Model the fold of this input.
Amino acid sequence: MPDDARPLRLDQILSRYGYCSRSEARQWLRSGRVTVDGTPIRDPSHRAAPARVRIDGEGVEHPGGILALYHKPAGLVCSHDPGEGPSIYDRLPARWLQRNPPVHSVGRLDKDATGLLLLTDSGELIHRWTSPRHHVAKVYEVTVDRDLNPDWIPRFAAGTLILDGEDVPCLPARLEILGPREARLELTEGRYHQVKRMFASQGAHVIRLHRTRFGTHELGDLPSGDWRVLPPSSIDGSTITAPE
Ligand code: URA
Done:
């Protein structure tokens, strides 16, 4: 996570926060676009805390790092590979992707799935929140193609369900039946296509999958396609996992 108080070279600030390459930075500096405490500085090796730097009159964007909630619409993949089709990354500010490290999703949602994705430029948070050791709770609303069976509640909760092709049982999951074909499922792990495969193990096909919660973060009323950058204080990952 970037530290907005630690002095860095100005050319490094411009490239790290996604404004331009380090070699282009020389030109930006030469033309007086960068100020420190209001004074234009032309020397790329000058060091300043990112929080004191302005570029074209604006403060450095998110100098302490980015953590954002994103409401993923259906039809987008969480991949940088253009061969996989339209991507969430096409919808985000270009400067977020040019940061070093770039903004990335914490885990993925399938192309047809909607709902809450966390986005961050912190590799450490991504690692912590996707690590199987951390048991981050994720809540999904699901619609299936046949009537739900109340017997699935204890089956999912038992911690004995083995998915096709695997030999380690799924951790206990909480299934709540909301309607004949609608349910809420809370997982504390994130295996490949886990929700779809859990319902498939009971003979049901998931036709709608929407994530409403990730750790302590709720999607709330964030409109589809929008994101909300959280205050820097929330970049403390210790709040995301429920106590064990
Ligand atoms: N489980 C799935 O099957 N798909 C997702 O996108 C997320 C969880």
Observations:
- The CA atoms of residues 16 and 100 lie 5 Å apart.
- Residues 67-132+217-237 form a domain with the Alpha-Beta Plaits fold (CATH 3.30.70.580).
